[in-house]
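Record type: monomer structure entry
Structure origin: computed from sequence
Chain ID: A
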Amino acid sequence: MNKRLIRNKIFKLALPAILEMTLHTLVWTLDTAMVGRLNAESITAVNLGAQIMFGSTFILGGMAGVGVTSLVARNVGAKNYDRASYVTSQGFLFSIIIGLIVCGLSFFFAEDIFKLIVDDMKVIELGSTYLRIVLIGGFFNLPYFISNSALRGAGNTVAPLIAAAVADIFNIIGDYVLIFGKFGFPRLGVTGAAIATAGALMLGTIVSLSYLFAGKVGFKVKIRDIFNVDVDTIKSLIKLGVPAGLENLMNEGSRMLSSFWIAQLGTINFAANSIAVAAESLSFMPGYGFAIAATTLVGQNLGSNDPEMAQISASKSVKYGVLLMSMVGMAFLFIPNVIMSFFTNEREVIDLAAKSIRIGALEQPTIAVAMVLSGALKGAGDTKGPFYISTISNMCIRMPLIFLIVFVFKLNVVYIWMATALQFAVEALLMSIRYGKGSWKTIEIE
């Protein structure tokens, strides 16, 4: 296969994934911007609540989602479509059970969770209300995660994009109408943002599932298989998924704990960090898209016994990811105040966030390398390597440094961003070493 065909194949997978995540991030940024027009307490409540819900479901979804993507990709590459369908059905079963347990417990203990994080009673009141509502949609977020994982493993990144577009359009309109009370609806503020998000998650799940149940991706998921407990298949998903889930737990857990610590610096620092993170998330889109492409192509090429093509696909995906993320980073470097002013009118928050995001510009290339190589390794079935690397970068660099910055030196949030820039540099280096050894080419998965 010549270079042009390889590039086309990568971009065919990556671009819809980039657009999908851009839509999701756009909704998050717009949601933050709309809530930001209320007050700093609302920004804090919504961001903490969103991190708790999306962070926990992302961690849990990763436990089955990565295994589903890897196994589906391998079986599609080997043209074993019945097995791909069956693996997906067992992923749904796993997500339903876990979702009922975790979302149910979080719903009932929402206020207690917020009391552990902040002392501001207004934030606790707003945040616990927001969390309880979005957790209803959070239950649907897990099957949604599995569905999209299967679709991507099959090489279809357009269907998740369509599902995201439907859900996100609903969310944006719902935010505007319910937060501010437009078109005869009551002004609900934070509660309105939560209702819009929960409804969007439900709608997106329905659209995504329709592709798999209708057999529009080369195989058709049978409803009866979802309720047929296959211990061996679930074990295979868990074997692949647990390290990935633990990696997500490490990453999301450290981010949440970092947010809780940053909250101790005060509302201004936390609000500045929240909007800077919201803006930086836009730069992750190329890395995410090319990571998806690397995961799918590595898995499918190994499934068809072509490790050389798997390596070429992964290497080129890294190249494209670094290039595009660096371009986005240039905007953070040169016009940070303009970007931050989109999210809030509070001058003190804007100035602090602008200084933070300018540092974030410098970490874009290393984030791209870490994200795409992690996706390539997972596509091959090496989910332990990214977990080990994530553990080192978080436990040995990110968390100790942030603890010192917040509780010992009592510095502002700008220094937090310096610490994370160092973390991503180390993570990219370790991921490159793991990938360069090439042992991922000989991994066998069932």
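Annotation 1: The chain has one domain: 3-442.
Annotation 2: The first helix runs from residue 3 to 36.
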